[in-house]
Specification:
single chain; alpha/beta; Rossmann fold; 3 domains; 5-stranded parallel β-sheet; 55% helix; 6% strand; disordered C terminus
């Protein structure tokens, strides 16, 4: 996009919003809202005049009550939010008490008063700023670069209608408006084609453009009520092309180290890859009714979400490090949602002792004991847990190990398709 000419600080923020994905006015609205929350938490929590206005407004709406707490926790703690939330509760509690004390015909009126939404000052500020942004976009569309940016922006429906409501408009605006009507019509037609191609015998006819139409429609219609995390516009990786490998083994076998090297070598070969360490996906303390080691339901839930997100960004290969319980292979494969190969790291007790005995982390002593118990039960040099497709000797340079794994998987072989073009890599034999 040609750099948009600006005349004020507000114009700069708008220009930046047009350079990012999604509805630029929704993005600017979120920026304005975040700036307001920060300013109140920093300067006005104990300001007498602001607190009087908040009391007269009967506090914040439900969404901004939560937004203040989230913003305060992100910056410092929750003290400022607690003061503002108490002020809101005090104001609303007066209405509740009045309704509870009322009798006869007045009760319905008092309850209705209590249910009336507050005149939230945060909503008021954001609406005013949003209106200024809408008017600014229309005014700036007199400039050819701004006109082209406005015509090509994926405005949500709420903001498109707000733009259409601005008067007077420059001579350039009718053409911009016509482009957006065409955009909505084209989206409608893509959704229809997607639905038509969703039957079992026609699914192979779906295109990436048709699949993307569903998210686009949701963003268009949700507008300011949509997700606060912007979607990345990079095309998603086709599930038929993506592959995953799980590096498993006992504590100290070098799973994470090998995973890092695999991602590095894949990156050097021009393959889009991402690493996931299972240890961090289920490391928590909470009063749950299951043992996460034996029933890794939270780990699997997180793995599924992270894998899907990486694939949506265009990642082609997932490299996962971690030990998995026996009999769980199918559940982990289902979580990643793409063909999964499992490679075990074969180690000896001597190697594990050498790696873990000098580790200053106190928990490593427990890891060493657990690893040695596993090796003693299975036999020295035994396969790693997790039903691996094959095992490799972990006592070798990590670069050589990574090259061996990638060669067996066919991920960087001379044949760029490798096993993904035919047999799945999960059929590789045991050593």
């Amino acid at each position: 996009m040609t750099r948009l000419r600006v005349r004020s600080g507000a114009d700069i923020h708008l220009a930046d919003a047009f350079d990012a994905p999604g509805c630029p006015l929704c993005r600017e609205r979120r920026r304005t809202e975040a700036a307001y929350l920060e300013s109140i938490l920093s300067e006005s929590v104990n300001d007498v005049a602001y607190r009087q206005g908040l009391d007269a407004a009967r506090g914040f709406c439900g969404r901004h009550a939560r937004a203040f707490l989230d913003a305060d926790r992100a910056r410092a703690g929750s003290l400022g939010a607690s003061i503002l939330l108490r002020a809101t509760l005090v104001a609303r509690l007066r209405d509740v008490e009045a309704a509870a004390d009322a009798r006869g015909r007045s009760r319905a009126r008092k309850v209705a008063d209590a249910r009336r939404p507050p005149a939230c000052p945060a909503c008021e500020r954001v609406v005013l700023a949003d209106g200024r942004s809408v008017e600014t976009v229309v005014r700036l569309s007199e400039d050819p670069a701004w006109a082209e940016a406005a015509a090509g922006a994926p405005f949500c429906l709420d903001h498109l209608l707000a733009l259409m409501d601005v008067r007077p408009v420059p001579a350039s605006w009718p053409a911009i408006e016509a482009r957006h009507v065409e955009r909505l019509q084209e989206l409608r037609d893509r959704l229809e084609r997607f639905a038509h191609a969703s039957a079992h015998d026609r699914r192979h006819l779906q295109t990436d453009d048709q699949r993307a139409s569903v998210d686009e429609a949701a963003d268009l219609l949700a507008g300011r009520h949509g997700p606060t995390v912007d979607r990345v516009s990079t095309p998603a990786t086709s599930a038929s092309d993506a592959r995953a490998v799980l590096i498993t083994g006992v504590y100290g076998a070098g799973k994470t180290t090998l995973a890092v090297e695999l991602v590095d070598q894949l990156g050097s070969a021009g393959v889009h890859a991402a690493a996931i360490d299972l240890d961090w996906l289920g490391w928590y303390g909470a009063p749950v009714a299951w043992d996460e080691h034996e029933d890794p339901r939270i780990t699997l839930e997180h793995l599924g979400m992270i894998a899907a997100r990486y694939l949506s960004l265009g990642v082609e290969r997932l490299v996962i490090a971690g030990s998995i319980p026996s009999g769980m292979r199918d559940r982990y494969a289902a979580a990643v949602g793409i063909p999964l190969a499992i490679v075990g790291l074969r180690v000896s007790p001597e190697l594990i002792r050498r790696r873990l005995e000098g580790d200053p982390n106190a928990s490593r002593a427990d890891d060493l004991e657990t690893a040695l118990e596993h090796l003693a039960a299975a036999g020295t040099g035994a396969d790693a847990p997790g039903e691996p497709d094959w095992t490799i000797d972990a006592d070798a340079p990590v670069g050589d190990l990574a090259a061996d794994v990638l060669g067996r998987l066919g991920w960087v072989a001379d044949d760029p398709a490798g096993p993904s073009a035919g047999t799945s890599p999960v059929t590789a034999p045991h050593d």
